[in-house]
Design a protein that fits this description.
With 332 residues, this protein is of the alpha+beta class. Helix content is 32%, strand content 16%. The chain has helices at 12-16, 19-25, 36-45, 60-63, 65-76, 125-139, 168-173, 214-228, 269-278, 310-330, and strands at 103-112, 148-152, 184-188, 193-197, 203-209, 236-237, 241-242, 254-261, 281-284, 297-302.
Amino acid sequence: MLSPFDETSQSLVKKYLSQEIYQRLKTRSTVAGFTLEKAIRSGVENVDSAIGIYAGDPQSYQLFSEIFVPVIRAYHGFAQGDVHCAGFSPVTLSDPDPEKKYILSTRVRVARNVEGFNFTTHLSLQERQKLEKTVVAALALLPGPFSGEYTAFDGAVAGGNIFNKGDRFQDAAGINSDFPKCRGGFYAKDKRFRIWLNEEDHLRIISQETSADLAAVFNHLYSGLGALEKSLTFARNKRYGHLTTCPTNLGTSMRAGVHIRLKKLNNNRTLLHKIVDEYQLQLRGTGGENTEVEAAVFDVSNKQRLGISEVAIVSKLHRGLEAIIEAEKNCG
């Protein structure tokens, strides 16, 4: 049988899904009914996919391990026998921008999927409704500064908490099914903590401030997440840590980053990229992935998520930001 992928595709799933593996896996189905055909649909329909495969439930990573393992190894550098090292606890870090001249805002977010539910690629409307009800009940129990209000999605949630329908890659994967039903946003009273429901994963949990206080933002997320975990249990396993719809987010599923204005380094991208690579960080445009840099404002965040602890991620980001700011100061 011919490959289901277009010959121009450069995706990781195409690279590692040999005919032998395809034949072995094509008739398998998880208990919830998720198949290889569903897993790779986005990669098949989008020839420019970089990864091209999504999970439909926790069992997907085990049942289709012959394809997930090499994709995860290639993307994360996660070798055979490696086990994710969790380590999420409060940190103490100095202000990386004490002069308040460079960092405009700081954000730390994690993705989570609620145990007992299929992932967003394989959720019926009835299951989405049940998940929404379960999550909203848990949100109502959040204490003190984390208490707030959940608003069912209508395109814009009070307080500026907005997320759009997923892109064509997510659409092909089934993530956009029944949109915008059972989507919503939660905004805590303290305005620093918010949650998106049923975006790419069940929950995107975000802590954000218009400051450079990376430790405060990280610790606030830690506390809010801890409060939420008193009511919800999240999908995870020993090897991969937190299980996510897209294998690129496995492990901590954390993105910690800042918006930082670098007027000098904007004109010396070679030096900037050298520092970013040294600290294993990711440099993106002002609006995130696949956007342009506006007014010399960059999005700088961690690149590693699997095989590294949350504390190590934020500590490495902190050191990297200090190096970037020092270079900005000294750049001619």
